[in-house]
Amino acid sequence: MRVLRVLLIGIVGGALALVLAALLTTSGTEQAAPAPEHPAATAPEIRPGTLIERPRGFLTPAAPEKFDYSPSAEIARQSTRYQSDGLSWHALLPSGDAAAPVVVLLHGANRDGLSMLDMWQRVGRTRSVVLIAPDAPGETWAAQDITAPRIAAMLDTVAATRAIDRAQVYLFGHSAGASYAALLVNRGIGPWRAAALHGGYGPPDQYRPTPKAPPLRLYLGEHDHIFSVEGAQAAAAALAAAGHDTELHLIPDHTHWFYEIGPNLAADAWGWFDNLDDPF
Predict the structure, then answer these.
(1) Between the CA atoms of 195, 200, 202 and 203, what dihedral angle is there, to the nearest 10 degrees?
(2) What pTM was computed for the model?
(3) Residue 187 belongs to what domain range?
(4) What span, in angstroms and rounded, lies between the C-alpha atoms of 95 and 236?
(5) Quick one: which of 177, 176, 195, 173 has its CA closest to 185?
(6) In sequence order, what are the beta bridge partners of 155?
(7) Of the candidates 101, 145, 215, 260, which lies 20 to 30 Å from 192 by C-alpha distance?
(8) How far apart are CA 193 and CA 185, in angstroms?
(9) Residues 178, 216: contact at Cβ < 8 Å?
(10) Which residues form the Dienelactone hydrolase domain (predicted)?
(11) Domain membership flag for residue 193
(12) Would you say residue 151 lies in a domain?
């Protein structure tokens, strides 16, 4: 009997030990499991932009007598040339004291800022718009030419002598300047409220999805021999997919030549800039 009693005590004791060990193991496992503190971080959702394509026949310019252009002597006299943060640039400042909107103008290859001021000078004077036109350091624009500090330096320099509205800073580019402008806007380099482009765009695969993407308008001549309509359609679709509300305006019987259409195109682009808050 004594042997049986010892055996039973041993069995019961062993069972209790196993139960206790299991409880301790479970308790240790529960303590080791970290409690979630925050939900997993998620990337911001990118809303695709709208895409509109429309013909703009009334913008078709007269055929030029010759494809030859130089900035007018008047614009050279009336504008001011600056140097800031390693960049040369020109400005045309309208009269008045009220804070003025600003349009930064990017020229095409082998041109300079004066050619853009010349095309936009009527808008600048009649609509009280500050015009800023940098010169590309080389024959055309390179990735490092326009940086956020350089844009800020140009705006600060103008603001020291003429009040500007920093909530209304726009970008316009022609040809290589248009391609570069689209990239700046898509990458968030600058305080742009919107951008308009003429005769230029970049490869569709360079545009990245971006939150708070500014709207863009691309003008293209249907007979542009450098940038095709099909390429413009692909670039516009990519910009819209990246989040930009995008308009493609095709101009019948218009080529790549900017210097006949320039003043009327500037007026049309400014009308769009100035009414962005209005419905189509």
Answers:
(1) 140
(2) 0.83
(3) 51-62+71-274
(4) 37
(5) 195
(6) none
(7) 260
(8) 9
(9) no
(10) 147-263
(11) yes
(12) yes
What residue ranges in the chain does DSSP mark as E strands? 51-55, 80-84, 87-92, 100-106, 130-134, 164-174, 194-198, 216-221, 246-251
CATH at residue 187:
3.40.50.1820
Q: Is residue 200 within 8 Å of residue 227, measured between CB atoms?
A: yes
Residue 115 lies in a domain: yes
Total domain count, the chain: 1
Residues 181, 7: Cα–Cα separation, whole Å: 90
Residue whose entry in the numeric block shows the structure tokens 């989040």: 243
Residue 279 resides in a domain: no
Phi and psi at residue 263, in whole multiples of 5°?
-60, -40
Predicted confidence (pLDDT) per residue in 126-173, tens digit: 999 999 999 999 999 999 999 999 999 999 999 999 999 999 999 999
**Nearest residue to 90 (alpha-carbon basis) of 119, 71, 111, 117:** 117
